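Input.
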Amino acid sequence: MTSQQAAQFLLDHDNYLILTHLRPDGDTIGCAAALCRALRQAGKTAHVLPNPEATSLFTPYLEGLLAPEDWEPGTVVSVDIAAKGLFPENALPYLPRVDLAIDHHPSQEFFAKETCLDASRAACGELMYDIVKQFCQISPEIGTALYVAISTDCGCFVYGNTTAGTHRIAADLIDCGIPVTQLNKRHFRTKSLTRMKLESAIIDGMDLHENGTIALAAITLDMMARLQATERDAEDIAALVGQLEGVKTSVTIRELAPGKCKLSVRTDPNDLNASHVCALLGGGGHAAASGATVEGTVAQAKEAILDAIRQVKQTDKE
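Output.
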């Protein structure tokens, strides 16, 4: 579907339930909040399915939008969800019922009846902006949610996925009256003391490979427990080690449970395609930022990701 077709689809249906992905970030939460408010403005009934993993950094944007327990939707929409494996447990019953998926990941699995996909966008929030502006007036509340979606997915407009179009949309949202200064302070210029200690622990345990061009860093369960860190303290921490001078590929390994690790890979896409690397491990994403979940210890996860990186580099040489 094009954005125009998606907008018409949304106007033609009603009684919406909006789904967000596992370990929800600003893009999925912001898109869900913006779409829900836009649909309500258009006279539709719409709710967002509560996400049990949402942190206090993003839950304020969903106030008044969450679906009651007995809500029975007529139309189910997923936002920023690329794969079936990214559905939270309470969203799994709705997986066969997704009527429309709105997404920007090239690794989209096309699980929905209809899909609106634009993999050229820095954030799903950019695509959502194109859709909702066709049938609603973008209020400060809708604009705030969209700004959170877009700015958090492009690192406050410094990641390589940022385009001129990203800046133009952000400018339009600022013109709508969003509290841009407060949003930037909240999401990009404020860290808890625990977050700073966590960053220090990550850097202390970081491994460098290939003459310092590859950096591997782990966040273990013991580390989180010792520092009494929460999910909010670990938000977007995958961007940390890639800031080291000389690093072209950074991998953050998050121990989710004993024997299970999540890999977040960030690369210079001109040097290595992160999506190709993660695809070897059952994951996916974008050329510069991808992820995968693997079985095994942190040490085994390090071996697996290094092997995948080497395989892709060798294939690219050939």
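The radius of gyration is 19 Å.
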